[in-house]
């Protein structure tokens, strides 16, 4: 009977090394061993020798556990990795690798030869849309992790990002909501990994708030050492100073909620039909009393702290109570080990290819030696016979001349081949290098032209950014004022601070009121819904996708591309290759003012800026502008509903911010009356989530198209069709 495969999942955290060994017994996954080894110091502390501390933990682990014969799966932190999710256009399956490589070269913010990157497609069976996840890490960071193991002569078989290991755990252990999206929050020592599982879609983000932030708040509030503050945090519930302890940590609670809210808002911006139904809490940071309840009250999402695993049993001889007591901290190791037994949803492996190939070669060397011995034995007889026959031949002058002539001819042939092949390798390397730079300047230049032009024509855009900043400041000052008033009731002496904070809060409220007094249709502001592009070997085909259909819908950017022949277009002398670019957005002014004050100047300004680019030019003199019909305005449902978020204001794209709504920021509810109307009939029909008292129903929604001809891309031949999308 074959020996059952065993796998170790090893998670090296800031506070401890967590290791979990699992195996498959009669189709059931079981825990065969586990270990937690705390570091003497937190690895992120300035005086900590990270390499030595990790080495000590691994040596202590190896002293009690034999890993020989087991598969080793190691996790790397999410904050040192890069993740990007891209929605693919409808193309043939065989073209997906080329498109993904193009996207990787455009999106990864490091030279492609300095990173190790993998990709995987994600597709809902009920949807034709295909989304691809691109995962990358700097080569040096991966080798830094592997060095801990190679120093101890350990061979690592799988390397995986910790957030992806958490996703594998979620999917296998059935931690998903029955319907809707599930958010997993793994609160570690110095960061929190957020993982979204939405049907078959995946999204991850790492925020820099963890258990240490709560400890540092206590250090600052009570003037304690870090070690004493950590002990105080862990015993907060039973402490007689529990109230003061939680008041000191309250700002960190608020910051964590705000970052989670921003992440939810950002995700629902690009997935407008998504509703979050469940939050799964993991990590030792989730042991903090009150955190589960605080998140549930402020996020309005069901929060479940994991107390046990659904699809993982404990083998005989394993200390089950001790394991169950620490399930919060083993989820990453669990997800890593699942990949070793081929039970994972994400199958990418960040182990450098050169290491994998070197091991495969070493494993095959004994077989090569045996095969060589067999071949030599088989050839021994014929070779001996050939030499015996050759000795019989007379060593005549004619034979010597024939041999000399053959050698001369062979030398001439070899010399000819040398000259013919000379430079082939250099040309091949040059061609490959040129491909890396094809269209590399297109997206940066496109964003400079379009977003730069928007900034010139939307004159009130900066005021909107200020408004968002005021909302954040108002929320923070309100929390600070509440805390000061509580402290003043207990210890007194806070009157002057309260007065100062109250004065700042009043000024912020005045700024917000002054901004709201300006009528919405008098502000020249632009919200960008999407900015997309599609490569066309012949831009004549792209003209079909500029006109709105009879039903008022925008056609797909890929319409006509599937039936169009890129090869034929590339060979046609009249074909102009390039990109069809589409900007969809809305503005707060009326249709007439939008055309006169924003869209027409935007047409003119982008045309002027494109003329300054030697690599690109517009096929037509002006970009086309289409005012979307009223049925198309405010895409989505007629009512935004819970979880709806606004379009991203131009100038705030990089902020990824969603202000945490407070009671005074939400619109008053409209209660249905018996007559079929609402008791409050003066409320907005479609409230702006950023400005709930204002109505978006009269905003002007538009689409603008540019046909951009590629004049030069550094290549001698036209490359295959590629697509790129930015949202």
Mean pLDDT, rounded to whole units?
79
Which sheet architecture does the biggest sheet show? 7 strands, antiparallel
The secondary-structure class comes to alpha+beta
Low-confidence runs: 566-573, 631-681, 714-727
Q: Please state the overall shape, judged from the principal axes of the Cα atoms.
A: flat
Tally of DSSP β-strands: 21
Layout: helices, strands, pairs:
Layout: E1 6-12, E2 16-25, E3 28-38, H1 50-64, E4 71-76, E5 81-88, H2 96-107, E6 115-122, E7 130-138, H3 139-150, E8 158-161, H4 162-172, E9 181-187, E10 192-198, E11 201-207, H5 211-222, H6 226-234, H7 242-270, E12 276-282, H8 291-299, E13 302-305, E14 313-314, H9 320-325, H10 331-340, H11 353-392, H12 397-421, H13 424-436, H14 442-457, H15 461-491, H16 495-517, E15 526-536, H17 539-542, H18 566-571, E16 578-587, H19 591-611, E17 616-618, E18 624-627, E19 648-649, E20 700-710, E21 723-726
Parallel strand pairs: 1-4, 3-14, 4-8, 9-12, 12-13
Antiparallel strand pairs: 1-2, 2-3, 5-7, 6-7, 9-10, 10-11, 15-16, 15-19, 15-21, 16-20, 17-20, 18-20
Helix pairs in contact: 4-10, 5-6, 5-7, 7-8, 14-19, 15-16
């Amino acid at each position: 009977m074959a020996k059952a495969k065993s796998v170790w999942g090893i998670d090296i955290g800031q506070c401890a090394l967590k290791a979990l060994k699992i195996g498959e017994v009669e189709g059931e996954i079981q825990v065969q061993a586990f270990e937690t080894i705390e570091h003497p110091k937190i690895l992120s502390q300035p005086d900590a020798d990270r390499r030595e501390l990790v080495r000590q933990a691994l040596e202590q682990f190896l002293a009690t556990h034999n890993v020989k014969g087991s598969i080793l799966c190691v996790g790397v932190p999410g904050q040192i990795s890069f993740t990007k999710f891209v929605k693919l256009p409808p193309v043939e399956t065989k073209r997906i690798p080329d498109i993904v490589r193009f996207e990787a070269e455009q999106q990864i913010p490091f030279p492609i030869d300095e990173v190790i990157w993998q990709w995987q497609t994600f597709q809902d069976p009920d949807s034709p849309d295909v989304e691809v996840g691109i995962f990358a890490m700097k080569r040096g960071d991966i080798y830094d992790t592997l060095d801990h193991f190679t120093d101890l002569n350990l061979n690592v078989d799988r390397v995986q990002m910790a957030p992806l290991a958490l996703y594998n755990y979620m999917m296998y252990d059935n931690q998903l909501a029955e319907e809707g999206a599930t958010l997993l929050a793994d609160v570690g020592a110095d960061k929190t990994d957020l993982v979204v599982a939405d049907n078959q879609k995946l999204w991850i983000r790492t925020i820099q708030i963890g258990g240490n932030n709560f400890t540092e708040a206590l250090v600052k509030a009570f003037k304690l050492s870090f070690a004493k503050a950590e002990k105080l945090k862990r015993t907060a519930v039973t402490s007689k100073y529990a109230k003061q302890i939680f008041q000191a940590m309250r700002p960190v609670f608020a910051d964590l909620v705000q970052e989670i809210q921003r992440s939810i808002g950002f995700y629902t911006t690009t997935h407008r039909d998504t509703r979050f139904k469940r939050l799964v809490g993991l990590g030792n940071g989730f042991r903090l009393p009150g955190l589960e309840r605080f998140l549930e009250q402020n996020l309005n999402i069901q929060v479940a702290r994991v107390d046990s695993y659904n699809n993982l049993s404990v083998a005989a001889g394993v200390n089950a109570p001790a394991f169950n007591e620490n399930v919060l901290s083993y989820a990453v190791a669990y997800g890593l080990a699942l990949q070793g037994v081929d039970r994972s949803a994400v199958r990418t492996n960040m182990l450098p290819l050169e290491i994998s190939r070197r091991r495969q070669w070493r494993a095959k060397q004994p077989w090569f030696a045996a095969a060589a011995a067999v071949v030599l034995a088989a050839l021994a007889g014929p070779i001996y016979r050939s030499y015996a026959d050759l000795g019989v031949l007379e060593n005549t002058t004619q034979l010597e001349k024939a041999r000399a002539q053959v050698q001369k001819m062979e030398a001439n042939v070899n010399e000819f081949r040398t000259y013919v092949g000379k430079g082939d390798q250099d040309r091949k390397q040059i061609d490959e290098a040129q491909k890396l730079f094809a269209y590399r300047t297109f997206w940066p230049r496109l964003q400079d032209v379009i977003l730069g032009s928007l900034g010139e024509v939307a004159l009130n855009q900066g005021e909107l950014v200020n408004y968002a900043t005021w909302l954040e400041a108002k929320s923070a000052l309100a929390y600070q004022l509440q805390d000061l008033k509580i402290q003043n009731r207990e210890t007194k002496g806070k009157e002057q601070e309260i007065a100062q904070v109250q004065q700042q809060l009043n000024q912020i409220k005045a700024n917000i009121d002054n901004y709201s007094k300006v009528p919405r249709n008098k502000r020249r502001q632009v919200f960008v819904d999407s900015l997309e592009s599609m490569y066309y070997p012949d831009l004549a085909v792209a003209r079909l996708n500029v006109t709105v259909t009879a039903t008022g819908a925008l056609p797909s950017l890929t319409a006509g591309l599937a039936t169009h022949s890129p090869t034929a277009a590339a060979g046609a002398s009249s074909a102009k290759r390039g990109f069809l670019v589409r900007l969809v957005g809305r503005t707060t002014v009326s249709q007439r003012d939008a055309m006169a004050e924003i869209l027409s100047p935007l047409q003119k300004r982008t045309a002027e800026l494109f003329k300054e680019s030697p690599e690109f030019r517009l096929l037509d003199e002006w970009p086309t502008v289409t005012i979307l019909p009223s049925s198309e305005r405010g895409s989505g449902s007629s009512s935004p509903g819970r979880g709806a978020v606004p379009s991203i204001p131009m100038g705030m794209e990089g902020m990824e911010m969603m202000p945490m709504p407070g009671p005074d920021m939400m619109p008053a509810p409209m209660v249905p009356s018996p007559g079929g109307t609402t008791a409050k009939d003066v409320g907005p029909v479609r409230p702006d989530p950023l400005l709930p008292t204002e109505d978006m129903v009269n905003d002007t929604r538009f689409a603008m198209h540019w046909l951009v001809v590629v004049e030069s891309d550094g290549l001698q031949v036209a490359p295959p069709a590629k697509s790129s999308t930015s949202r």
